[in-house]
Amino acid sequence: MEVFIALLCVAVVLWLAWRWKQTSVFKKLGIPGPEPNLIFGNILELYEKGPIKCHEEWVKKYGRVLGYYYGMKPVLLITDPYLLKDIFIKDFNKFINRETFSPIHRYNPKNPHSQSVLNLPGQAWKDVRSILTPTFTVAKMKQMAGSINSSVDNMLDVLQARAQKGEEFEIFDTYQRLTMDVITKTAFGIQTNVQKDPKSSLLRATKLFFVTNYKDPIVLVALVFPLFRRLCIRLQEFIAMLMNNGKFPHKMLVGGIKKVIQLRRTNPEAKKNDLLQLMLDSSIVVDATETDVSKLEAGNTEVEKLEAEKKETTDKKIRKMTEAEIQASAFVVLLAGYETTSTALAFTTYLLSKHQAVQENLYQEIKELIERGQKLEYASINKLPYLDKVLNESLRMYPPVHL
Ligand code: HEM
Question: Which residues form the signal peptide (predicted)?
Answer without folding.
Answer: 1-25
